[in-house]
Amino acid sequence: MTSPRTNRRAVYEELRRRVVGLDLGPGAPLSENELAAELGVSRTPIREALIMLVQDGLVQVFPKVGTFVSRVDEQSVLDAQFLREAVELASLDDVPATPDPVVVAELRTILAEQEACEDDPEAFFHLDEQFHQGLLRLAHHEGTWPPVVAAKAHLDRARRLGLQGHSLHTFTSQHHEILDSLLEGGADSARPILRDHLRSVLQDIARIRETSPELFAPTSGPPVRRNVAVWE
Question: What is the spatial distance between Cα 92 and Cα 136, in angstroms, rounded to a whole number?
Fold first, then answer.
């Protein structure tokens, strides 16, 4: 029998996956009753999971208005980007002069798979994650990846939004360039390329804000609830 704690955790992980994956987009209204019916659980684990998501900054509750998926918080994106960049760039210095050939082969395979799924942004995103995790594994710092992932929920939402307006081939080419530069010229050669690659999401935020400002609007007030959530 599943314990209440396990049930709550499973509901939390599923809802977090949907929010970070944009299945539940920024500003989407959340109904405890509807989510409970959809997931086949009582309202209690739904309520507890939503509280956890509020603590993550991914859900907002407005009394007498409703519960909504948070809009992408730009400062949280910047903070997560700062953390991720610091970790990944620092790790380059610890890549051995003769990198592990098994890990290098895994990275090459990931790149080939990315080239084959450039019409599938979500599959591409997961391969992107695997590539960057692989770079850390190449430097023997893969253990730093889980805390980076935990900190970058808003960043990952911004990245997914950014993928919608890009040719994914651009990112695959950048990955090839990063890996080739690292293997051929070492950390000093790869560092500026990796830095520019990681910072491209900041340009995406500016672009997305122009076309869909409601996704990044100030968070000082609640949405106006009509048939759909409208953020002002």
Answer: 8
Report the distance separating Cα 205 and Cα 188, nearest Å: 28
Round to whole Å and give the CA distance between 4 and 166: 42
DSSP string of 44-90, one letter each residue? HHHHHHHHHHHHHTSEEEETTTEEEEPPP-HHHHHHHHHHHHHHHHH
Whose structure tokens read 């082969």?
Answer: 105
Separation of alpha carbons 172 and 200, rounded Å:
13
Distance CA 50, CA 56 (A): 10
Q: pLDDT tens, 196-207?
A: 999 998 888 888
CA–CA separation, 19 vs 59, rounded Å? Answer: 9
**Average pLDDT in the 94-109 region?**
97
- Model confidence at 19: pLDDT above 90: yes
As given in the structure block, the two tokens for residue 71 are 């809009």
Contact in structure between 155 and 76 (CB atoms under 8 Å): yes
What is the chain's mean pLDDT, rounded?
Answer: 90
pLDDT in tens, 29-77: 999 999 999 999 999 999 999 999 999 999 999 988 999 999 998 889 9
- CA 120 to CA 124: how far, in whole Å? 6
In contact, 52 and 18? CB cutoff 8 Å = no
Distance CA 61, CA 81 (A): 26
